[in-house]
Amino acid sequence: MIELPPDYPEVIQGLKAWIAQAQTRAALAVSRELLRLYWELGRSLDQATSQRPWGQKVTEQMVADLRRAFPGVEGFSKRNPERMRAFYRAYPQEAGFAAQPVSQLPWGHNVVLLQRLKNPYNFDFLTLGKDAHELEAELGGLEGSDRQKE
Length: 150
Fold this sequence. Notes:
By secondary structure, the chain is mainly α. The protein starts with 7 loop residues before the first helix and ends in a 10-residue tail after the last helix. It is about 65% helix and about 0% strand. It is elongated and about 75 Å long.
């Protein structure tokens, strides 16, 4: 076993902390870009369907084409295009979306908010520390006018 300098524990702890912080920043940056991508896809889908009648089959073809073009990329399920469109409709102004707390939440949290709240802006009781399942459980217990009728 080698003899380490006396300040080695401090140095290694500092490096570990820096790496952990960098990993967190990278994950948040990826999440923000994914939300921006889903917002853009939702906007494109909303504009395309408002200008011409797209049925379910056209949307399914779009999903199949995206899956083929980007194999291994998640997010192109049968339901996600409608979620993306709902996400765009909830925050139709890009500048407004970027300023909202939802732009800091992972996609799964945003999906839960869109599905469970009439007004997705009304979630000031939430914390970023919850996972989507905890969030769903909390929102499932809501009573009153803010909960969507199922």
